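Review form for a predicted model. The reviewer records the input and the model, then writes brief findings.
Reviewer: anonymous (R2)
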Amino acid sequence: CFQGKKKMFPELFRIGPFSVKTYGVLVAAGFITALLYLMKRAEKEGISRELTADTALYLMISGIIGARAMYVALNWDFYRNNLSEVFSIWSGGLVFYGGFIAAVITGVVYLRLKKTSILRFADILAPAIFLGMAFGRLGCFFAGCCYGKPCGLPWAVTFNNPLTFAARGEPLHPTQIYEALFCAALFWALDVFNRGRIFRKNFDGEVFFVSVVVYGIWRFFVEFLRGDDRGARLFGLFPSQFLSIIGIIVSLGVIIYLWQKKSGK
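Model under review:
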């Protein structure tokens, strides 16, 4: 049972005014792990390590900027009076869909300039995204961001560290752990899909767009368990739920289009 007086560690250690945040360390670990996986898989697909590393770097930079920009926009009531905190990403505060949209735009432009198949690269990239996210969500857990609603389940978590972003002193859904486990499982499934061990993909881009659909469905429902502030609701839904719906519809449309194109219809 995790309902005892558990103290998460948002801060690994501090030396004078300098501190190392657990969130930042885990996000960095996620990026490195995802990059190593991506480079290994891309090389087997005949894509150079140099192109893969450059693309990953641009995706990371644009992704972080987009993710932070959306987080700040959704929490502008706080940041308008705390502008110095806008760039403190090492402490927590990234929105997946903001980073995803920014990274997709960057990837499409860069890979077109390099005359590399966007869809083929996207299929290789998809598992790496969720491998990195699994680490990132663990970072959210230690920082206390993206926390869940109060609950009385045996695995509920109580945050007590004064540096945490989570509501303190009450058992909460460990939504960050739910996300980390789901992303790890999705990484495995997409990797198996890419390798054709159980299901063989029918066309380039299928793995990527299937991942958007699957994650979108998951994200839509897990949002109902979240207790943190995620922006204004519209028709009872949060921004990430609307983006999930859009992602699912667009991805299903692309999958149908690519399937028909391959079939010659």
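Findings: Strands lie at 11-15, 18-21.
Further findings: The radius of gyration is 19 Å.
Recommendation: see findings above.
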